[in-house]
Amino acid sequence: MHLSFYMFQPQKAFARVAPDIGEMNVVSRVFRSFDQTYLIRCYVIGAAFAALFIGVHFLPRETPQAMTVGDFLYPAVCLVFFPFAKRMYDTGRAFALGNNAFAFPIVIFMSAKILINCVLFALSPVIGPVAIAYLAYRTRPAI
Asked: Is the per-residue pLDDT at 3 higher than 80?
């Protein structure tokens, strides 16, 4: 009986099998999984680290070196992937620590936070694609 009902309405028969084009856009699904303020905050922090990475090249040295494309390309790639790496870190931290709160002196806390963000920024080309794949899998439409 159930099959005969769908026999006359083929659009309903394949509605669950073939999602519409809007659900198949992986990039929009991944970016919609972020809170907008979180994404902006991550890009601002990433831009500060990118400026720091590029600015280190301009420090005075004994042997001056010319800037290469890689001196700008690596921080740019890190900047693109930083929010995804940070999201992966925050998800793992929330899973491991749960809702527990720890009290540390502010100097230790902020130093650790800056160090962790710097390491995440530097490793974001490695962590970021894994995080994007995880978010694409996690936000996929149900069949």
From this structure: no
